[in-house]
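Notebook entry, structure prediction.
Reason for the run: the old model in the group folder had no record of what sequence produced it. Starting over properly, with the input documented here first.
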Amino acid sequence: MTFSDTVRFLFSLGPELKTVKWDLARVRALLEKLGNPQAEPRCIHVAGTNGKGSTCAMIASVLDAAGYRTGVYTSPHLIDPRERIQVCGALLSEAAWVEAFEAVHAVAEDLLGRDEIDAHPSFFETVTAMAFLAFAAAKVDVVVLEVGLGGRLDATNVIEPEIAVITPIDFDHEAFLGSSIESIAAEKAGILKQGRPAVFAAQRPEALAVLERRALELNVPVRHSSYWRVEDLRQERGGSRFTLVADEEIPIVCPLAGEHQVENARTAVTTLDLFGAPAAVIREGIARAVWPGRLERVAESPEIILDGAHNPAGAKALAAYIQRFYAKEPVRLIYGAMRDKAIEEVTGTLLPMAHEVILTAADQPRALSPETLLQMLDHPRMRTAANIGEALRMARENPMPTFVTGSLFLVGEARQLFV
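New structure, fully documented this time:
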């Protein structure tokens, strides 16, 4: 099988949200037949609504700097599915990807033939199993593992983590996780394990109450990110500088842009300190962290920034960034969205920030057409473009700072045109 063959097969399994199975039995049966590779490395498990990926990127960067062989599993990908499985900061090779896929697929077919599972594992279940196999083959020391959706019944929740981390909880995927902050927090709290330590980022009070109650039930020792005090904060378009103060002081240079990244960095540092990473290594690793597609500047003239703000919390973070750094100049949004997102709430936050809006669509079956968006939204200067390439050509006709946002799929397609 070629790499392209595996990708075609994985996508043939259907969209991740449409094929999600709220039961860990299938992925557990699969991993057991594979020899339970998830039991081998030390794991840091990260759940939350926003900031999971950024927090994982900073944790992994520090662990790399500390000399660990580090595996990272995140989702979704922007361009290449191999972005989801990385070892020591590098994408899995196509050969290693194919090897992992063939092993997982063969076991899945065998289980199906014996009627031990009800269907072929989903896209996410398959790639999760592939990641554990690949990390075992690469002999990684530590895996930084991002939850895909929720926590309690997410396919990644088959591990006993060394540390469980929960980033800020907000509204997203309500159809799956519930319509209240409390119900969403209960799903995220599902990654907590008996007696295993946890780190909680700053939370809404109603989310924190749920998390702390569950931690108490499981005898989970909790360290809050507020353990570290933020001092001397200076924010810039390209990141921030500040000092974290507790029993010691750690000067931080965070290259990830946006005010929200200060809390993500503080959460990462709290986790790394608990893990035992030295302050000097924490400082070095955070400064080297990279997380594509999130306030990522890919061009300067005109200035083009990619940000996959696809839910209300992400939209608020992007709006805060625009207000802080672009309040005195007109900006443009290139916006596209998937039909299952909170479009009215997201655009209600973002559109007032924009002098002009270009509506477009990612090349995805779930994407809303620009014409549909045009009928839904209200802005005095809106145009449509058939695709991201056309939208960017239109943007160059009248240069101004331009933000591509609303969908990580759209951001991924835009990024391919620049990197």
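Summary: DSSP finds 16 helices and 17 strands in the chain.
The old model has been moved to the deprecated folder.
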